[in-house]
Specification:
Length: 417
């Protein structure tokens, strides 16, 4: 099929005339469901539309009768295993919609409902078929009411964030923050969440100096509104501590981690997954300061909690394995570290796909462990694959990418025989 760019002005006019004739065959009296679905589909990207989304856009009913009506008049094509609209048809559908703002709102609500049914924390790739449609809807967020626009931008930014597309997530989080501050005020919980999300994606990009004041602002708001012993205060303490630690400020980070752990143990109990996360945070900080003996029991306790509460194949369990393996590596216990890195890599690849930054980090960890054992030939392809993932997902100037390049240079200079 010719693209819109391939069509001359005369041909585009001809296509519009043909679409007008097709559209005129549908009447509100007899084809209300088909017209409603057509106008909603027109707000999506000109890419395959998941079956679950077609059902949601049909108000929970089977979309098949409406789709048959649209096919009969030539407004959609059904391929073997997918339905999608051409870009010219989506533009036509938006122009002919008698209530475009209401239709856009209904479309956004349906897409968000479908995304809400996905277990994206465990399987971020499950959101991939919906991602282009969310991104297309975000281009029209200014036409939505503030509350719905913020929900759309937040959910899309979050999906991009957990899939490692940090540069694409950042402007969406910035837009959400602007909406929340304007409509809800600087201390509203949604504003606080927006600040946290934006700070997190900045930190993931290595922009620690930009992230830190946002985390500090969040901590001030949360302590003032919820008190010094609330779990949300502990979460804010942890976020700030992680940012400080990423900058090498371990002495400043440690008391924040210790305070957060005390809050979680007191409020959530000693076996809660969030307590396990806090144990891990403190252990990693201790390890960075060379306190391996103090760090190990914290990491082992955290891994046991995760395996019990989340299961052996959860990404968070994999992260816990990685942390314990890292401690073993630092102690030169390579035989103990390697199987933990391998298990973590298998979990991440299954959960996130082969090109996620967390997969790259684990590839790097496993490669460095192999390298330390003198297994250069086995380590090199893992490092090369990790570098390629970092360059695609984080960019060539991210600290992790630069570190990987240095490791590659060192490896090339090593005796590979």
């Amino acid at each position: 099929m010719a693209t819109e760019a391939d069509l001359s002005t005369k041909h585009r006019h001809g296509v519009v005339a043909a679409l007008t004739l097709s559209y005129a065959q549908l009447t509100p009296e007899h084809d209300a469901a088909a017209l409603s679905l057509f106008h909603r589909l027109a707000w999506l990207a000109p890419l395959p539309i998941p079956e679950a989304l077609l059902t949601a856009l049909s108000d929970g009913q089977s979309p098949d009768p409406a789709l048959r009506g649209l096919r009969v008049v030539g407004l959609i094509d059904r391929y073997i295993d997918r339905i999608q609209l051409h870009r010219l048809i989506t533009a036509f559908g938006r122009e002919r919609d008698p209530e475009p703002t209401a239709t856009l709102s209904d479309t956004v609500t349906a897409v968000l409902a479908v995304i809400g049914d996905q277990d994206l924390d465990r399987m971020p790739l499950a959101g991939t078929p919906h991602r282009p449609h969310l991104e297309e809807l975000c281009r029209h967020a200014d036409r939505l009411a503030d509350v719905l626009a913020a929900r759309l931008l937040m959910k899309t930014g979050w999906l991009l964030d957990i899939q490692g597309a940090y540069a694409a997530a950042r402007p969406l989080y910035e837009r959400v923050l602007a909406i929340c501050e304007r409509s809800l005020g600087p201390d509203h919980p949604d504003t606080v969440q927006s600040l946290t999300n934006l700070a997190g994606v900045l930190e993931a990009q290595g922009k620690y100096a930009a992230a830190r004041p946002l985390y500090e602002r969040v901590l001030t708001i949360v302590e003032r509104n919820l008190g010094p012993d609330h779990p949300q205060t502990a979460a804010s303490l942890t976020d700030l501590a992680e940012c400080l630690q990423a900058q090498g400020k371990y002495a400043a980070a440690r008391p924040l981690y210790e305070r957060a752990l005390a809050i979680y143990e007191r409020s959530l109990g000693p076996d809660h997954p969030q307590t396990a996360a806090s144990l891990t945070d403190l252990a990693v900080c201790l390890e960075a300061q060379g306190e391996y003996t103090a760090a190990r029991p914290l990491l082992e306790r955290a891994l046991a909690i995760y395996e019990r509460s989340l299961g052996p194949n959860h990404p968070q369990t994999a992260a816990s394995m990685t942390n314990l393996a890292g401690l073993f590596y630092a102690q030169e216990k390579y035989a103990a570290a390697r199987p933990l890195f391998e298990r973590a890599l298998a979990i991440y690849e299954r959960s996130f796909g082969p090109d996620h930054p967390d997969v790259a980090t684990t590839l790097n960890n496993l490669a460095v462990c192999l390298w330390a054992q003198g297994k250069y030939a086995a380590a090199r392809p893992l490092l090369e694959r990790a570098l390629a993932i970092y360059e695609r997902s984080l960019g060539p100037d991210h600290p992790q990418t630069r570190l990987m390049r240095k490791q590659m240079i060192t490896l090339r200079n090593s005796d590979m025989r």
